[in-house]
Specification:
mainly alpha, 0% strand, single chain
């Protein structure tokens, strides 16, 4: 997760990227895939 945070941080001040563009910038695109396809069941946007 630390590498994901490091890879995502610079994108926070840029225009939004598509999911594929974002995955291409990551050192571990497989992690991004898993987070998108199988998010944590304990997290919800309403909590």
């Amino acid at each position: 997760m630390a590498t994901l945070a490091e890879d995502l941080a610079p994108t926070l001040t840029e225009p939004l990227l598509s999911s594929d563009e974002l995955a291409a910038r990551l050192r571990d695109p497989e992690l991004w895939h898993h987070l998108r396809e199988r998010p944590s069941p304990t997290w919800s946007p309403t909590t």
